């Protein structure tokens, strides 16, 4: 084959190759421009609720030198506390008696103060209930209970939680998605575009916080339920 003809054929092949590359690159750029026309927005939904579950823990303690004497004493105190809780309107299945623990005073401590009791028996009575008012009333009377038990009730702690997410879930997700769309509409308006279909969407987990805080204070009856959705909306000219 003549050299000149060979050069012409090679040149045509190279030209066709560059033409095809140009087509695919151009088509790719058009696709990039098309798929990059979207806006990423977040939608927020919040609802203030009251705690629906309360946990009240009452601590009891007896000190002495003889276990045989202390066990009946702490048992009687336990019964007294349970009776008190029932008077406040709490039920048997909401009250749990914890196991007793025995602590022996160390020899070093006794050497420093021989009058110290040799044995400490401690226990807890725990209430888990949806009857918030009854548990609050009992907690407010703990000092009276200390007096009635001659100081055997040593401490009490109350915490609140919210467990009723199920009825709120669908409505709050819908509200968060609507909030995200409103944000996309505002963005589109500002940029002279129109909002198209959803390209991608994700939902964050539900959070239960104390109103005005970024954490949950278990001692607060008031709770704030929050969910955030993240949505990519297509934008059209």
Tag the structure with descriptive keywords.
alpha+beta; 2 domains; 6 helices; Translation Initiation Factor IF3; 43% helix; 9 strands
Task: Give a short overview.
The protein has 237 residues and is α+β, with helices and mostly antiparallel strands. It contains 6 helices and 9 strands; from the N terminus they run H-E-E-H-E-E-H-E-H-H-E-H-E-E-E.
Terminus-to-terminus distance: 56 Å
Strand content: 25-35%
Work out the helix count. Answer: 6
> What's the overall geometry?
elongated
Provide the number of structural domains: 2
User: What is the gyration radius calculated from CA atoms?
Assistant: 35 Å
Q: In terms of structural class, how would the helical and strand content be classed?
A: alpha+beta
CATH top level of the largest domain is Alpha Beta
CATH architecture of the largest domain: 2-Layer Sandwich
Kindly report the CATH topology of the largest domain.
Alpha-Beta Plaits
Q: Please write the string of helix (H) and strand (E) elements.
A: HEEHEEHEHHEHEEE
Q: How would you characterize the largest beta sheet?
A: 5 strands, antiparallel
Helix content: 40-55%
Poorly predicted ranges (pLDDT <50, ≥5 residues)? 9-35
């Amino acid at each position: 084959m003549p050299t000149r003809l060979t050069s012409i054929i090679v040149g045509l092949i190279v030209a066709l190759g560059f033409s095809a590359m140009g087509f695919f690159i151009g088509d790719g750029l058009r696709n990039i421009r098309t798929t990059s026309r979207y806006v990423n927005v977040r939608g927020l939904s919040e609802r203030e609720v009251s705690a629906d579950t309360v946990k009240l823990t009452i601590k009891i303690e007896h000190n002495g030198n003889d276990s045989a004497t202390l066990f009946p004493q702490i048992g009687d105190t336990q019964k007294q506390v349970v009776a008190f809780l029932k008077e406040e309107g709490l039920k048997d299945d909401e009250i749990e008696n914890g196991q007793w623990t025995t602590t022996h005073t160390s020899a070093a401590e006794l050497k420093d103060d021989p009058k110290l009791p040799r044995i400490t028996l401690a226990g807890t009575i725990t209430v888990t209930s949806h009857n918030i008012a009854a548990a609050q009333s009992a907690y407010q009377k703990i000092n009276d209970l200390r007096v009635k038990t001659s100081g055997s009730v040593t401490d009490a702690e109350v915490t609140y939680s919210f467990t009723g997410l199920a009825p709120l879930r669908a409505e709050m997700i819908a509200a968060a998605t609507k909030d995200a769309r409103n944000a996309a509409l505002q963005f589109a308006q500002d940029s002279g575009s129109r909002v198209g279909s959803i390209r991608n969407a994700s939902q964050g987990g539900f959070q239960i916080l104390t109103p005005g805080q970024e954490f949950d204070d278990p001692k607060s009856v008031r709770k704030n339920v929050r969910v955030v959705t993240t949505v990519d909306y297509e934008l059209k000219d």
